[in-house]
Amino acid sequence: MIRRILALLGGEGFGSNQFPISLLIRHFIIQKIFMLNRSVPWPVHWTSRVMVPKKISRGSRCPGLSHGCHIDGRNGIVFGDNVWVGPRVSIISMNHDANDYNQYLSSPPVKIGDDCWLGANSVILPGVEIGNHTVVAAGSVVSKSFPDSDQVIAGVPAKVIKRLAPYGKKNDR
What we know:
Layout: H1 2-8, H2 21-33, E1 49-51, E2 56-57, E3 70-72, E4 77-79, E5 84-85, E6 90-92, E7 95-97, E8 100-105, E9 110-112, E10 117-118, E11 123-124, E12 129-130, E13 134-136, E14 141-142, E15 151-154, E16 159-163
Parallel strand pairs: 1-3, 2-4, 3-6, 4-9, 5-10, 6-11, 9-12, 10-13, 11-14, 13-15
Antiparallel strand pairs: 7-8, 15-16
Helix pairs in contact: 1-2
């Protein structure tokens, strides 16, 4: 029975210690029975919204599992492995045309590298690429790409404020 539920939630990676079974069952009930975010094939918090999940490559974690997230995948989003998404994060892949608000602009997909952490209330805008092991500070607005690795970006608009040691190693700087 539990294996069936896990398969309905998206299959791979769910049998590990990464996500407790109780969390998966709770999100299964909310998504598949109460039909909130029902088209999303991975667990999503009931207060989060995921648009066009078929254009989102989720990596090894579940974007939108934190509360209040807005993930708009209309132009595509590519998450690397081990990307942590904090509460109320917005990732917006499509923007309105400034001359006609009924029209949307096409842009490259948002790309977020491996081992990234998107802090609470941060906003990632269309076409942005974030390099591996990048920490986006809480409340930041990322309006341009930061393809380098091992960095902390913060501010409105975001800028690099600190360099980090490679992921998994202590920072002696």
